[in-house]
Structure formats: C-alpha cells, structure tokens
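Final paragraph of the annual report: two paired records, presented back to back.
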Amino acid sequence: MPIRVLSVHLVNKIAAGEVIERPASIVKELVENSLDAGATRIEVTIEDGGKKLISVSDNGCGMDSGDLSRAFIPHATSKLASEDDLFSISTMGFRGEALASVGSISHAHIRTKRSDSHDGAGFEVAASGPSIEDVRPCASAPGTTVTVRDLFFNTPARRKFLRTANTESAHVTEQVARLALPHPHVAFLYTHNGRKVHDLPACETTRQRIGDLFGAELADSLLTVPRRGDEMSLAALVGPPAAARGSGKWQYFFLNGRYIRDRVLSHSLREAYRGLLDPRRWPVAFVFIEVPPEDVDVNVHPSKIEVRFHNSQKVHGLLLAALRETLNKSNLAPAASLGQADTTAPDYDISAADRQRSLREAMADFFKSAPPPQPHLSFPESHGPRGGSSPPSRAEKFPLPLDRSPAPSAPAASHESPHPPALAEATPPGSPMAFQVHDSYIVAQCPNGLIIVDQHALHERVIYNDLKARLASGPLTAQRMLIPQTLTVTAAEADLLAANEELLSRLGIEVAPFGPETIAIQQFPTLLAERGTHAVEFLREVLDTLGEDSSAGPEQLIEGLLQVMACKAAIKAGQPLSSAEMESLLARADDAEKSSSCPHGRPTTLKLTLQDLEKQFKRT
C-alpha cells in the first residue's frame, strides 16, 4: 500500500481520539487552560451530559486577537517555547493539541478579552470540523469563554460509544472535583442541565474544599499529615481506618497540582494501613506532592494522568514514612455513636441488649431446629405487605434458608451436587465431629481426611444464593425505619441514588431527599436490620458499589449489591458458634450452588487428605 500524507483535519481527528475520550476530557483540558491563565473563578456548564453543550468560562488573563487567531491551529501553545521547556513542565497543559482536536470534532467557539485591555474590545472565533472562521471583535468580559456544541457530530462512530447523560455527567463531576481539590483558592461553579451540581467558593484550606465537595462529616474526620521534605515535599489528609470505604475511588493523588494515578503511591498508601484495615477496604486519602518539574516526566500519557518519577523509591519512602508516623501518633479508636441506638428495629419496644440476646437465641434455635428438606427454595414472609410492622417470624429473624434439597420424588441419580465433595462427606446428620478454631474456622472430619471451612465465606455464599433466588420472585422483604437515618451525599451521589431508585427498591432500600446535601433512609432490608447492620454505613457501601463501574448494567449492579448484603449479613470471623450451629451450617450448605467459593471468589473450604497428613508426619 502506498504511503500517504494525511490531511491536517484527519490528523486533528486522530489527535482528538487520543486526547478526547468523552465530555469530561474536554472539561479537563479547558479548565486546565483556565488555571494556567490565572483564573480565580471558573464556571463549567454542560447539557445532556456534555454531549449537547460544554461551556467553560473564566476570569483569567484572556487573549488578544493575535493569540486567538492561532488558538485552533495544531501544536500551537503558550506553554512551551523551546525543547528544554519540555523537560521542566510547570503548567497544567502544554501539548497544544486540545483546542485543535476539540474544533475538529465539534462546533466550537471562543470569546475572550485580555484582563489588561483598556479599549473594552473583546474578540471571538469559531471552528467547526475542518473550517476555522476569521477572528472578529465582540463584546466580552475580561477572561475567556469556550463553548463546545454537538460533540463528535462528524464522527458518529465515536459518538455511539458515549454513555447516558447521567453517566457522562458523573464523569464530569469527578473531573471537576479532581481539578478543584488542589486549587482551593479558585471558586468553581458547575451546572448540569440548569441545575447547580457544585458551587464551591474560594477558600483558604484544602480541608474546607473537601468539606464543600464531599461533606463536613468526611472532612472533619481526616487526619492531617504535616508537610515534610525539602525539594520533594508532601502533605496529606487521610481518613482513620474506621472511615475506610468499599472502593479506591476515595484516594486522590496530586503532583504539582495535577491529579495523577500512580502504582508507587497507591502501594505506599496500602502499606501504611497494613494491619489496620480489612484487605478488602480502601483508606480515604488526599495526598499532595510537590517535586521540581525536572524530576518528573508528565509527558508519559496524552491525558497527563500518568507520570514517571526520576526517583520513585524516594517518593514511596517519603509518603510511607509520613503516613506511618501520623497513624502511629493518632488515636484511631472509632468514636461510639450514642445518638441513634437502633432505628431499624420493628416498632415494638425492645432494648438493644435484649435484641442482641434475642438474636443470638434465635440464631441458636434456628440452627438446632433446621426445617426439613424442601422441594424448592422458600423464603416465608409473615409481615404481609412490604414495610409492615408485625414482629418477624423465627425464619425471618435469622433468614438463612440453607436447605435446598431436591424434591423427594426426584431420582437420586439425577441430582448433581454443585458443592465440593468434601462438604457432603463432612456433614452426615448428627455428626459430632465439627469444632471451631479461633472462632473463625470450622474443622470437620471426613472419611479420607478433614476439611477446614471459613465460616464467614461459606455463610456469605449461602445467603447470597438465597437472596438471589428470592429476588427472582419479587422485591426483598423490607421494613420502614421508625426514625429515618440521614447521611450527607455529594450531588453526584444523589444523582446516582435517583438513577438507581428502582433497583434499590428491589433490594428493599428507599431513600428520600432531606435537604440540599442530605438524604434520609426511609426503608431498609429486613435481613440486614435484624442482623444489626448500620444503615448509613451500608448505604455508603452501596454508593461505592454503584459508582465503581458507570458502564455496568442493572444485573451487574444487582450482583454487586447482593454481594455487599450477603457479606454484611453473614456470621463474622471471630464469632463463636455452638456445635449445633456449626453442624447445621455445614449440613445446610450441602446443596448450596458454587459453595466452594464465596461471592467474591475466595475459597470457603480447604481439604487435607489422610495421605497429606501422613506425608506431613512422615508416616509414608
């Protein structure tokens, strides 16, 4: 095939594919330009998730007519003057591709006026696909406004990959947060479809900015990591272990004012919390690092989100030492909450202590008197309509229908057990051979050796299977809360809850607005309420799960939420069980589908054969 020189317009489209992934990418590029222009106030406006309109307006230094005439030309930039500048980047943007790329795949318009202009004149220019209009005078306030309409109008193959307006706006919301956090002195106003999402005033401290973005509750809980280092320095605000979340999206790393992702920094943060957190939990952290520009390469990736440190081990050690010193000096004991004892209980008077004792007795009673095999899965309901206030039945008080035996009439040969053979071998009726180790593992004898069961993992699998089967026949049983519990949410989280209202209703969760940045939990799943699950903490887990993958469909989200519910409801490691409880758990897990692993994929059972034991004791 012959080699061809590509047209400028096609080159710009290719560059757009590298720089512009979605509307949030354009917001990032334009706001970075505003920050480099010295703006103290930036307004971001989008419509239809940014697919229809993106507008970024600032009060920065502005441009004259000569600068504006070169704005849409590829590789035209005010950020670099020579090759040496490429190795000492001190600005947010520098590639000179963003505006040219934006103009090539949208209807773009720039209106600007220099802040030091005395004649009152401003200028404007428009670009659409391959055409760039001439610069002309216009009325304008000092600063610059860039408007982008109909993104990917001439590249339908790219446009079809954009997600829903809610998903795209969520990405923009996250991008605004990443840009606003390291610049608390800059005011930000972000609006979507005419509704204010963020109105962030200029403030003195990063903690104030975090509070404005994510709520005062989170901001007030953060520990201050004092600034340390000379040429390479860092400062941070990190959450105590009790504030850890269910995903890593609450970890923000900034290098010289730019949000980055870096495995070295992530590893350092994880190591600092080792032994303080459940490995499946993620610490909350806002880390700000400053290094001389020549000591880092920010030109690794087109989006500038990945960097390469000249001395990554020094950065790792600096962060790890600072975090460990702060955590070691801090009182990490979670504060007791005495304000709302337990508002998820049924509306008859019972003390917290009595309820805990009743729950334990019900658990033991349930295990000791396991119901006979059922021809199909049953999940009895005695409440009547959802939300009723009748006292729960024994089966609902500890709703763990582990019996999933085949119908009595089914031929034995046709039943293929999906559980590990060792479980079946270890659970003959009335077997006295099970005992507990460290209140976490169940050890049982089987004909050719022994098995070790992770009680939490196995119980989690059984509950997950039952919830999934129960959900197939209708919404999960739920109860109204006597006193709705409230929590502070961001605008993005409120949108996330609203967008998934129907899905949450299927799980027995109902929330309602309770103020500008607050929602109230009105209804909660009975299973979790009876297990003493804290409603606010659980909803935080739900929000993390919903926000992890914006492209996930309803069924994927349901899977993730059921996993969270099963984990919260299952017996925990460190919880002592009676012999009857252990034997019943093993026996009633006999027919649990995929019982070899918990819903998260961790193994539930290990087996040691007699041959393994004899080999270890050198009897072979």
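The closing record of the year follows.
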Amino acid sequence: MIRSLILLLITASLTLLYFTRGQSADLDQRFKALDRNNDGLLTEAELPRRQWFERLDTNKDGQVTREEARKVVAAMLKRGESLPRLPSEEVTAASTHAVIEPALTEVPAVLKGSEVGVGRRLPDLELTDLKQQSLKLSRDLKEAQGLIMAYFGATCPISGKLGPEIARIEKEAVKQGLKMLLVCPVAAETTDDIETFIKTHGLTSRVIHDQDQRLSLALSATTTTEVFLLDAARTLIYRGAINDQYGLGYSKPAPTKTYLRDAMKAMQRSQLPEITATTAPGCALDLKTEVAAVETKLSYHDQIQRILQARCVECHRADGVGPFSLETYDDVIENAAMIRKQVERGVMPPWFAAAPPKDEHSPWLNDASLSPQDKNDLLTWLASDRAKGDPADAPRPLVFPKEWTMGQPDAIVQLPKAVSVKAEGTMPYQFVTVPTEFEEDRWVRGYEILPTDASVVHHVIVQVHAKGAKIRNRGEGAEGYWAAYVPGNTHHLWPEHFAKKLPAGATVSFQIHYTPNGKQTQDQLRLGLHFADETPRYIVHTASVANPRLNIPAGASDHLETKEQAVPFDMHVMAYMAHMHLRGKAFKYEVTRPGQSPEILLNIPRYDFNWQLRYDYVQPRFIPKGSKVKISALFDNSLGNPANPDPTRNVRWGPQTEDEMMIGYVEYYTANNGG
C-alpha cells in the first residue's frame, strides 16, 4: 500500500514535466493538479521527488511558482535535454488523483486563538515531575517572566526532529527570564524512553510525565509537538506549533514561520503576538474527554479583563482611538451598558465578514470577532453582579507605544505645512505632494499614517509617483493605492520577504478627506516608513475593481450594483478592503475561475462606513489568469438609513461623503525578478 502510494505521488510529480514546446496550457493543468491546497505554489510535499523540487525552486525559498517551473523546463528544452515522459493513461490517472484526493501532508494551520483557549487563565495545577518532586504553577512562576510548556513524545518522530530546536529555545528562554516545562503526554512511554529523549537533545528543564492527563485536559492539548506559552499571570498567550519546518509528510531545510519565537518576542514587549494559535502537526493525543482551560466562576480579574485586553483595549485606552477607556474595572462598570449594547448588536469588536461555515476555521488572519465562549462570558458577567475577583488573578498589563504604533519609523514623510480644517460644513479633498530624497530604490515592509489631529481625518489615500512622472489628482483612488488610512486601518506590516517599492527620487502624494467636527483645527499628518532589511522575494501591489457608473435611485432601500472584471494574470491575493460611503449596506467579492462555478471570496453582510477594515488572508489565495472577479454592493438610499445625507436625490459616484463610491481593493504579490 505504502509503495503504491509513493509511486503514485512520484507519478503525479512527473506529470508536471510532461510537456513539450507549445504545451504551456498543459503545464498549467498539471501544476494545478499538483497544487493540492490551491495556493499557486508547490512545496516539496506536493512535488516529492527532491531532485526535481531542488531544480525547480530556483530562488531557494522553499516553494515553486508556476513561473519558476516554466522557466526551468523551457531552458531544459532549449538545451535539448530530455524530459521524463509517461503514457497518457498514467498522466490522466495521476492528475485526477491529485485533484480529488485530500492532501497527505499536514502543515501548521493558523487558528483563531480565542476559540482554542488563548487569552484564558490556566488553573493553578499542582503536578509531580519525573523526579517525583512537587511543582505548582503559581509558585514556580513567581520569579519568572513566563512559562513555556513544550510537549514531546519520546518515540514520536516529529518530536525527535524538533528536539534540537527545543534545546535552542530552552537556552534562549533562560536569557529572557522564562522557564520551560517539558511535558510527555503519552502514558505508555517509559521513564527510560523519556530520559533517553532528554539526554539525546541535551535538555535540562523539569519534565512532567502527564500519565493521568490532568495537564493535557486543562490545556485541551492535541498533539505531542504542541507548545504553550503562558505569562507570569498564567494567561495563555500562544499555543500551537514551534515552527513550520516539520510536519506530517514533509520536511523543510529551515523554517519559514517561527511561531513560538515570534510570540516570545511579543510577550517581552508586553504585547500580544500577531498569530496566537496554530495546529501542531505531530502524533495525535487520545484524551479521555475535552475540558475547557477556564475556571467556572467568572470575575473581572480572572477572565473578563483578559477578554478586554485581547479584543478591546488596543483602541479603548488612554490616548487610544476609542471614545472611552476600558483599562480598569471602574472604566468597565462606567461603560457597562454601552459595552453590552454594542456586543449584543455585533458592532464591537469591529469585524464584519460573515462567519465561516460551522467547524471551519476563519480564513482571516486579523479576525477580531469574539469567540462564542468569550461573547457568552462577557455578556453573562455584565448581566450578573459583576464580581471583581482577586487582583492577584489579574493578567499582566499590556504596554502600548505612546506615538507610533509600530515603533519609530526608519523614515518619515510629512506634509510640508499644516492644513487648516474649518469648524463646520464640508471640505473638498486636499491633495498634497511631498518629494523624497532617497538616492536609491527603497523597499518598504510596513507603514503608519499618523495625523496630528486624528479627530478630523476620515481617510487618506497615498500614492507613489516615479521621479519625473506627471502627477495628477485623480480624486477617487479607484486605481488602487500605495498606502491608506481609513477607519480601522492606520498602519500595516507585511510578512518577512514581502515589501512595496519606493523608487529613488519618488514623489509621495496624499489625498486627504477632512471632516470638520465643530472646532477649528489644523493637521499636518506624517507617513512613517519601515524598510525591509534586504531585497524582498515578493513585491506587494494593490489593484481595484471599481464601479464609477453608480446610479442609486432616490428612496431605494436595497439597490444592487455589480461590477465584473477579468483577471489579466495569475494573482496571489493577500487581502481585500471594501470602500463605500454612507449609503453602503453590504459588499461581496466573488470569483469565477475558468470552467468553474462562482465562489465567494469575502462576504460583508453588514458594511459600516465608520470601520473600513482590511481582511487579511491567513494564507494567500491563488486566482488564475482568465478568472473573473465580481464585486456586488447593496446601497440604502432610503429614509430608513439614518446616516443618509439626502434620500430625495439620485446618487452617483463622487468624492465627497454625500456622494457614493464602490471600490473593491485587492492586495496581491508577484515574484521579485529584479524589479
């Protein structure tokens, strides 16, 4: 059986190379068949013949793009080299199998942390280590900055591969004031097995053989490779894989994602990690029952404060963008009615994408919605006597930067002079250009737009113009943007190896929408730039699908507008951002791939002009050339829309808030081939 499976995988891999001149469409078909997770990339697991994978992966980034495959094979043909060939029957069978069978490999998948216990407080368990010495979490964490609980299986092969990395992290944890606890959850493994594993990898931390599964049940642990990072208050900060180097059915020369290390760095800064949970490919655990990692009696310090830290305090704090602070118990009591109202309505925390199907994980990296359990706990506590609890149970306070959210930028582009904003009425969009003096191209990995008076800035569209280019104020930003400031999005950091280009000597233009708020003021906003440390492998772009021919009838409560646009080249989509004005009601992105049925990419059933969010994919989505992307928008131009400026007039496209827009921004990346 195993031999047949290996032969089948090798056969599927060889189909990628079975084509001659003029057969690029056939290559695309084979590539698609092998691309089991449909991300437009082939990993070593999807192309298991290592010699071919190494040959096709020309930039050695651990993945093969369609462009890389085409170039390598074209070069082979040009040199007259022969390609492996298979009978057509075998090609068909292999291709069909690759499409219909589920992937045989398992890589870490990003999870929504609040749905798997992250942010909750672990009970103060008392355990016995391998040397029969007592260990209690509150006592043993007393002098530490936090605790790493690293699961392992003494005879689990993936645990064995991760052993050296666990040893390296163990040494780094000591330098950071963290303790490590090694946990073997497999009851059947012997003390000799465990001690051999510890000695082989030179580990020195205390070891728990969790034979009765008390710890594993409290954590709802899943595999022998899972790690758990707790702070000194026993709050679960991160759970999941150490990194993505090893999984079921694959190995990488080096990790490309370092989940645990990233979480440790964030905790050092007293901040929350960007990724708080993943699956952990390893040997599965067979727990007797599932027990949530939470104590049953709700109090502010024990649980509610943790929920607010994870989902609310970033905005609702002193000097934050929220209208009031939720940093203390008194703050929460003072605003309890408003919290309950907004949570029940689904307005807070701001997140408007439709929920994923039952038993499916959210595809969005920045999903800010409350998990069902957190929502229930928060509303239950608000409806009770609102017990404060023991301050000793409180989570550690978060630390927020006083000015730049992302830290001090590498460079700042500021408006040359302040813009005067009147007290009342409306203002036309301001268009300001600022020349830069960079003598060479710069690669920007992140940006932040910081007004001096955020209360009057509704949104900002930033464009970059090459040196000598003719600069026009297009007014609407429908062609895309280089950076943006809109409600809910003021800064962004792309993953490592991804960046946007800022050409040498470029001019930066700012299109600014100011909204007077009853007080005359001035604003001189700044654009902070964070440069990549090296030339990126991938260049980030932003395109758009826009419908400037809007015609929304007066009084219409559910007016539908659509726009469809062909995809001119293969796209790896990273994020979306929908833009409408005050009559916007709902927005949807769909794609129809060649020969396939339409698929919903993003559904926003309740659009809110006040919160124009980015929707960032956990994993980029591949959309092949020839697909059609369709955006659909519902507008409410009726008396029933309290935000409607004038329900008596037909509304068309225009830059002011009383006009309308319909833009579906699409962020995607391309390989950097020396651009």
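The longest strand covers residues 442-450. This concludes the annual technical report; the extension proposal builds directly on these records.
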